[in-house]
Structures are given as structure tokens and as C-alpha cells.
Design goal:
single chain; 451 residues; alpha+beta; 5-stranded mixed β-sheet; 14 helices; disordered N terminus
Amino acid sequence: MATAYGPDTRDHYRRPGTGSGSRPPAKHFFPAALRAPFEARIWRELGYVVLSLPISVVLFSFAVTMVSLGLGMLITFLGVPVLAAGLAMCRAFGAMERGRARALLKLDVAEPAPVRGKGGMMSWVGAVLKSGVSWRHLLYAVLHMPWAVFAFNVAVILWAYGWAMFTYPLWRWVFPVFVGVDGIQLYGDRTHAIYLDTPFEIAVTSLLGLALVLVTPWVVRGLVSVDRAMVRGLLGPSRLASRVSELESDRGVVVDTAAADLRRIERDLHDGAQARLVALAMDLGLAKEKMNEDPEAAARMVDEAHGEVKVALQELRDLARGIHPAVLTDRGLDAALSAIASRCTVPVKVVVDLDARPAQAIEGIAYFTVSELLQNISKHARATRASVDVWRAGDRLMLQITDNGRGGADVSAGSGLAGLTERLDAVDGVLVVDSPAGGPTTVTAELPWRG
């Protein structure tokens, strides 16, 4: 994991995807400004803008018609199911828009929660009308149409004029052959007219067209960024629903982790201390039987049993330390991390800079995170030195474990790092691994303080 870590390197902490472990950007011969008009992305985005106009007109017309009809018929109560049907169709259009954004803008927006009635037509109608997702889809149908008209005109005009002016030297011959004039007319009245027909004017026109061609992709990209925001904000699940789903997933991870820990403890007790104590009981029984017949043999068996008791006690202490070490409860992270660092097979420098103690649960997660990472260093890193640094940044507890080993650690490989990532994610934590092949490796963990 990396070179020796100290407080001066804390500013180098990076979020996932920003470290040196991320995929390096592809190298191109031409700069991005020259490549943009010919990349597939601009054509996908331009296609999205062009399609948005007819789709938004149809969606706007349908939404306004159904809402107006439903509100107008509320006095007869028939307007309630009509309004619900209109909202349901807006949700169907929203599904189509999410698919279009996924295909053309590469924007993957999760499906919102489906409408669930308790049974019966009226229950479904009530669920649709009470669903905030349905009304957000209606709002998208109303707001997207004027924006689509504006974006269509800007994008198409810039694109058409840009390419027409840029390629003007190639098609100027059309004017004298078929129109009878020397070129594009800029101005004309009864007395005189101005045409773009000299080599200088043709070159300037082409250069201006080239400028428009180069600018258009960035203008279109800015336009579709508004579409991205509208699709993400109005057609996806609400932040509250996303947070509830995330918490449900995290709760499942916590339950699975707790169950796995209980199974580990049961297995360690059954295969370790329990088996040793059963053998010890049998040895003591045999020693009791030999007490009168062969006192020396009985004494030897009691002495061996005494040694087994010591081993069993050590196993129980190790097991208790694995559940929750007493030193962590009594003296905090500094002493607890120093204790596990002393058991690592490589020299470890521990620096803990905390002015208070975080919540006990967070402290325990931090301890076991460092413990597992140091075990990985001992088993796999082939390092000669390592360091552990702990500090507080606002309302977050920061951990950074580094070593100078061979590197190549990968969270996506299904290793223990993946389990650590899930455990930290369950408490709104983050685990970042920067481990290029050949090393060094830096693992940074961020946990909520919750003191």
C-alpha cells in the first residue's frame, strides 16, 4: 500500500474515480475542440434535441387535454378517473423518456416506485392521484415542451448554418448555374446588391462557418444538460425514496454481516475452545482414574491439562478480542490500533490525531477496518513497511492505511475489500482503494463521526 503517510499528505485524499487507480483517459491526436463535431456523442445529443420537439408537443398536448378534461368533469366525479388515467399515461411517457435518455444521453435514471393500490379500481385511482411521482411526470410534460422548442431552434439553426457556411466553397457554384447570381446575397435593393462572391468573402464565410461548427457541440451539450437535469429530477425516484431504498439495502448488509459474525463466532467456539475443553475434560477424567494406580502418570496428565487450559484461555481471549477488544473500550482507538499494529508481520507506524472519541459503533468499525487491512498486508502485500493514520475532518472520521507492497488490490475482485466496502457503506462510509500494479497501495476510509 503507499509510501509513509503523514499529515502533510491528507489533502491528497480523493473520492472514488479521481485517484490514480481510475482508468486513465484515452490519448487523442486532435484536441477535444476539433474532435467534438465528429464524435458520436454530438450526433446522439443532437438527435435527442431534434426528437424532443415532436415528442414534447405530443406529450404536452396530451397532458393538458387530460388534465383540463379531468378537472372540468370533477363535478360529475367522472373527472377523477380521467385525471388518474392522464397521470398514468404521463408515467408511461416518462418511462419512454427515461429509455430515450439512456440510449442517446447515456443517462441511467432508476425507475420510480410503481403505484400500488390496495385492490380495486378506486384504490388504484387514489394511489395514482396521491403519488408525487405521477404529478412530477405531469410537471415534466408541461415544462419540457417550451424548453424543447427553444433547444430545437438553437441547436438546428447553429448546426445548419455552421455546416452550410463551412462548406460554402463547395456548393457556391449552384448560384451562378441555377439562380443566375454570383453567390449568397447579403443585401439588396433596387439600386445595388451585395453578394459573397470574392475569394476573400468566400474564405471568411467558410471560417465563420468553421467557428460555428466547432462551437455547436458545446452549445448542444449545454442544452442537453438541462434535459438531463429535468429527466433526473422529475422522472426518477425522489430523493426520499432513493434514501429509503438505500437504507433498506444497508440494513440488509448489516443483518447479513451480523449473521456472518455470529456464524464465525460459533464456528470458532466449536472448533477451537470447545473442542479443546472437551479433550481437557477427558484428560482430567483419565488422570483421576490413574491417581491411585500410577500417581506419576496422573501428575504428567494434569500438567499437560494445565498447558491445555492456558491454550484454551488464550483462544478465548483472541475470540473475545475479535468480538470487541477490551483495550478499545477502555483506552480508545490509539491504544487499540497500536496493539493490532504490533501483531502485524511488517513494521507499522500508527498516528492517531483525535481530540475526542467517536460513537462506539463507529469506533468499532474503524478498528476492524484497520485490523482487516493490516491482515491483508501481512498475508498478501509483500511489504516491508506500512503506516496507519487516523484523524477527524469535520463530522467525518478519516482512516488511511498505506504500504509499499506489490499493489494490485481490487475492490471489484470479490475480495475482503468488497466486504469492507459494504460494511462501511452500511453506515454512510466510503472506502477508496488506490493500488496500481507494483504498488504502492493506499486505502482511505471515511466514516461518519456521530460522537
